[in-house]
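Troubleshooting log. The previous run stalled partway through. Resubmitting the same two chains, unchanged.
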Amino acid sequence: MYKNYLVMAWKVLLRRKMFTFISLFGISLTLAVLLIASTLFDNYIYPNGPEKRAANFVNISGVVLLSKKRNSVQNGALGFHFLANNVARLKTPEIMSWYTRNSEVSSFIDNDRLQNLMRRTDDKYWQILDFDFIEGRYYTAQEFASGAMVMVISESTKVEFFGKQSALGNKITVANQTFQVIGVVEDVYELEHYAHSDMWVPYTTFADTNYKQHILGDWNALLYHSNTAKIPAMQSEYLDLLASDFVSVDPVKFATAYSAADTKFIAFSRQISSDDDYRTQSTTIGSALLLLAFAFMVLPSINLININVSRIMERSSEIGVRKSFGATSKQLVIQFLMENILLTAVGAVIGLAISTLILWQLELSQALPGADFQYTWHTVLYGMVMILIFGLLSGVYPAYKMSKLDPVTALKGGA
Amino acid sequence: MLKLNNINKTYQTDKIETIALNNIDLTVNKGEFISIMGPSGCGKSTLLNIIGLLDKPSSGHIFIAEHKIESYQDKVVASLRNQKIGFIFQSFHLINDLRVLDNVELPLLYRDISAKERRKLALAALERVGLSARTAHFPSQLSGGQQQRVAIARAIVGKPDLLLADEPTGNLDSHMGNEIMKILESLHQDDGTTIVMVTHDEAQAKRTQRIVRVYDGQLLDSNNSPLHLQASA
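Second attempt completed without errors. Output:
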């Protein structure tokens, strides 16, 4: 019986080419857009590069500082003083890493000026983030402590400087400092904000120690715990510490500090909403995005419902005939849902093909350098849930309406 | 074969109650071919719909093949329509998306029959109406007469006890109408099929064994007097 429904559905779809085309166009395009969006989003929240342990860490990227009279507000990335006197006192994290934001540095090869991004980090950075080394290694705790002039570079940087040969042991001079290359890592996708760079060196190699005095600067901190369940504890410990025992360089000028240790999702929400206030937990934007995705899907669903309902009018005589010859309402509902599910499934396959093609082109185009898009089980799950919602939303109401159709009225052509 | 006892059908709108059928008593014997005649709006089609279990009477009882209709639950009437009744409509009501053979197979889809068996029975039914060469056509590729023959094949494919034809020649010219009548007569004479046909055409009605006349929702006797008034007089 079900096989027959499928065959029948297939025949109907083939016969009504215009209807099928319009429906498939809407379904596949919607699903393609949603799949691309969710894959981009998914790859951001659950990266597959060095930040692949994102579920186990949170990042502190900024702070808002209020004066004692509360008449002056300053905000920005963390200063080293803030890290050393506040973040350093956290007990919950198993590993903490401090690292600078990317800064642009210049170097010269045969009078050609090269521009690159560089970070200064501690040795713990390499334990929290999981880089893929093509050759060599990262700097040890000892090298870090002694301020060894060593450097890890990305693959494209290696090619830029040294071509195809091994980079290990070679020297690179940037910002009037010369470093020895001890490791080469695979390029990092730009949206992995904490890991992405071209060059990494120990922050103990700074030419002077002025950076240690500032409460605002360009530092970030990663807090890691091997048990993901400890993430909320780390976050609240940090908030409590700032609220009860904030240590400031200047208790009058910077009396109160607001900051947060963010998961990738919250960091994403803040970025989207340009929210750097930290006095609120920015989850609303994330939820709004999910809502938007849902609304985006509801619109074509309503359209398909509309097409389906008018198709019932058109097919009311068929419904009357089927009822006359012994179809029950339930059988008709199943038949109609099968048609819809088949249509949605075909649309889904086309949508998947379109999105795969677009993501593939996006990777090739290097519009997002280092990007390696993968359909994780999350994306596939999103896709399946979307298809299910889509199929149900657009199929159930028309099918219900149809099952209620009286055979005599249906035969007369009224719905 | 078919027995109607005291069938009434009224339509209730806000303020007006319309009587469509009034105390109808009718018996059709097995193997009989009868026609129902009457002016437009007299209740012929309502009567046929009630016989065909497409519509529910307001009161009264129906017996089809000794089976008293007690419940109008969707599942129950669907099964009875499928097993006992075959419909032929004035406007054919073929499904345009399906080929001729698939149209004829339709009633068998709702029975527990293998695809192979369905095909065999459908081909036999098409042969019976002389259309075995048109199995792969779509209805729109056939003439009106051919479409009605497909509809007859569909009605007889499940070997129902009762064939209900609602003005089967109403949309056809006299030549094609005659062809359809010949098929119905042959089904009656050769296969012993019980047929109830609604018609406007006196000549065609005369070709059946008995004419039942309906006027204002009531059956008339051969003197054109309401039957139930006679009974109560």
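Takeaways: The interface with chain B takes residues 1, 4, 8, 11-12, 15-16, 317-318, 320-331, 407-408, 411 of chain A (CB under 8 Å). Chain A has two domains: 2-48+285-411, 62-261.
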